[in-house]
Amino acid sequence: MQNVGIDFGTTNTVVAFLQEDGSVRSVGFLNDEVFRSVLCFWTERTGASQLLRHEAGPGAVAAYLDDPLDSRLILSMKTYLAQRSFTETRIFGRRFTLQSLIATFLRALAEAAGFAPGGVRATIGRPVRFAGEFADDEFGEGRLREAFAEAGFADVTVALEPEGAGWRFSRRLTAPTTVLVGDFGGGTSDFSVLRFIPGEPVQPLGHAGVGLAGDVFDQRIIERVICPHLGKGDTYRIMDTDLPVPPEYYAAFARWHRLSLMRNPRTLREIAEVARKARHPERLEALITLITDEQGFALYQAVSAAKMTLSSEAAAELRFSHASLDIAETIGRAAFEDWIAPDLARMAGAIDEALADAGLAPPDIDQVFLTGGTSFVPAVQSLFTARFGAERVAAGGELVSVAEGLALIGAQAR
Q1: What is the mean pLDDT of residues 24-34?
Q2: Which of 31, 51, 53, 288 has the most C-beta neighbours closer than 10 Å?
Q3: DSSP 3-state assignment of 192?
């Protein structure tokens, strides 16, 4: 039975297989190393019956964009694992628990990767700290295990995601080394201190994590650059009194698909009523158009592109145009770093917590290994270079290192 590592992520999922020669191979999906952690549901009428259909991964995004008004998109499933308040949802009248949604996704993932869930030994990752303000980590791991079992995985081992990245990194080590691993996903940032001695089992020394990462950085750009064009911070007049435009209109921008939840007659009528009395009605009218025309995905793509540019350039132009809305603003890296400063402070606190958990200080760390897309952000890298020196900080395999390391852990554990 083959060992497989599965890094089920908030945004993307990666699968890696351990080969007979001891090497690790990550699976490609449509010329990509990752499989989007997304489901899309819609209905089709066949005779007198109405069938519920679904797609996962890149097919889900394509299906949603093809018919956004009559489909239901499910994203960020991992974010809710440790939230006891999320128990079930109904999709076109059918009840789904969170575990059954994830299981549906995992079965499609396995099919796309070319293996049967019951025919592999799977090592799956979990964050050190699950996302959410009131996250219950033990509860989250339990539901993750239940989802894999429901998908048909019979042999499952759970390991911490930063440990997986550390195992992959350890293959380049030839001497005893103490490593701090920073794993930055879409929803969580995790840190592990590990001791590697060639020929001996890896010794975990300390862990810490925080429930924020790249998705939050996107939100900061949206809050500062996008939402003011859509009426945030504006006022409207009632009975000779100026009132602020309700800020709850912009809460849905935390996740692009949540804009769909505002596409209901009551909410749209309320926004339209406020727009008629607003100082800048055209901004709220643009918000209504954005919602009704399902432009959330396109908007977030533009924001993500600007964020990526800021990782290599001192400034980035954010451009987004739809109907009467035309945004073209230059974002300086310094301004962006000011916006994410509170988030960086929380990450810095988690790094310190991981060191304290290990009983070590920065001089005791021989190497730092960073992985995940958010590790490209210069301000994130500076959290480590300032403490440990640039010469001790390394990166590589930002998208696949966790899954490949999990496959290695699985072979060692069995």
Answers
A1: 83
A2: 288
A3: strand
How far does Cα 11 stand from its chain's mean position?
4
**For residue 257, what pLDDT is reported?**
61
- Which residues are registered as beta bridge partners of 290? none
Residue 182: strand, helix, or coil = strand
Q: Which of 250, 322, 301 is nearest to 36 (CA)?
A: 301
Q: Say if residues 236 and 245 touch (Cβ distance below 8 Å).
A: yes
Contacts of 273 (CB under 8 A, 6+ apart): none
Q: What is the pLDDT of residue 143?
A: 97
pTM reported for the whole predicted model: 0.84
Give DSSP secondary structure letters for 238-275.
ETTEEEEPPGGGGGGGGSGGGGGGG-SHHHHHHHHHHH
Q: Taking all residues of the chain, what is their mean pLDDT, rounded to a whole number? A: 91
Supply the pLDDT for residue 75: 84
- 123 has which bridge partners? 5, 157
Are 399 and 12 spatial neighbours (Cβ–Cβ below 8 Å)? yes
Q: How far apart are CA 244 and CA 250, in angstroms?
A: 13
pLDDT single digits (tens) 237-255 = 998 899 999 998 998 776 6
**Unique residue bearing structure tokens 């956004």:** 68
- What domains does the chain contain, in order, with CATH numbers? 2-174+396-413 (3.30.420.40)
- What are φ and ψ of residue 76, in 5° steps? 55, 40
Q: Among all chains, which residue has been given the structure tokens 């996903």? A: 185
